[in-house]
């Protein structure tokens, strides 16, 4: 079975300070892991993905995440928050099963990031 | 705009009515997915198509829900006899699976969603 736990439903940071959004996963198979961002009235946008290559993944807008198998974690970080980063962030897992059909995405419950000017 | 589009963006209906949503995926994408997102939750998988074939349905998809992708391009999701519990954002996503078994490595592109409110 696949599942994702986002440890914080809401994170608030000041502009220019670091961002940390925490995510732990569970997967019966070698997982692919993603972070998506959802701005109000806009579609989900992929920030970055881990697919068993480098464990430190760099994404768009200065975000990065590190896959730690021993801790089953995939936390999202950014060195310096910008006002435009305020949004809902979803950690997502999908199993990579060779020869399988679907790759249903399993979403966490989301973390709302607020950036204080 | 060549992204995934959904229509309508908002739908308000009375309990018991039928509603239909449309999704137009990115044109060359062979996979199309439907998800449902309720307030305060992440999206949950409903069903997906490989070209015109519906290959998997979630247990969330009751008998009142039906989805089609008749020509392997756009898709429709119909809800019959709507209930207040159907109120949610319905999201469509598409992807291009070029090699079998690599679907887990491929990005899904999401549309803006259709927000359904059942009164």
Task: Characterise this structure.
The complex is a heterodimer of chains A (117) and B (119). With 117 residues, chain A is mostly beta strands. Chain A contains no helices and 12 strands. In chain A, the strands form 3 sheets. In chain A, strands 2, 5, 6, 10, 11 and 12 form a 6-stranded mixed beta sheet that branches. Chain A has a 4-stranded antiparallel beta sheet with strand order 3-9-8-7, with no helix packed on it. In chain A, a hairpin with a 5-residue loop joins strand 7 and strand 8. The model of chain A has no long low-confidence stretch (mean pLDDT 89). With 119 residues, chain B is an all-beta fold. In chain B, 0% of the residues lie in helices and 47% in strands. Chain B has strands spanning 5-7, 10-13, 19-24, 31-37, 44-50, 53-57, 65-68, 75-79, 88-95, 109-110, 114-118. The interface between A and B is medium-sized, with 32 and 30 residues.
């Amino acid at each position: 079975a696949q599942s994702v736990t986002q440890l914080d439903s809401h994170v608030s940071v000041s502009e220019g300070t670091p961002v940390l959004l925490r995510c732990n996963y569970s997967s019966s198979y070698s997982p692919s892991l993603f972070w998506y961002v959802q701005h109000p009235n806009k579609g989900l946008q992929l920030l970055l993905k881990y697919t068993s290559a480098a464990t430190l993944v760099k994404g768009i807008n200065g975000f990065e995440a590190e896959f730690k198998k021993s801790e089953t974690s995939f936390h999202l970080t950014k060195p310096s928050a910008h006002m435009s980063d305020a949004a809902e962030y979803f950690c997502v897992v999908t199993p990579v099963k060779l020869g399988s059909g679907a790759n249903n995405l399993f979403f966490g419950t989301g973390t709302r990031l607020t950036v204080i000017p | 705009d060549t992204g995934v589009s959904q229509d309508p963006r908002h739908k308000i209906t009375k309990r018991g009515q039928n509603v239909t949503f449309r999704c137009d995926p990115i044109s060359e994408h062979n996979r199309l997915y439907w998800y449902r997102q309720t307030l305060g939750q992440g999206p949950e998988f409903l069903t997906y198509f490989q070209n015109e074939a519906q290959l998997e349905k979630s247990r969330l998809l009751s008998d009142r829900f039906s989805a089609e992708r008749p020509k392997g391009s756009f898709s429709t999701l119909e809800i019959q006899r709507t209930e207040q519990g159907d109120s949610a954002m319905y999201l469509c996503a598409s992807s291009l699976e070029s090699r079998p078994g690599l679907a887990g490595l491929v990005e899904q592109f999401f549309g803006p969603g259709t927000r359904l409110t059942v009164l």
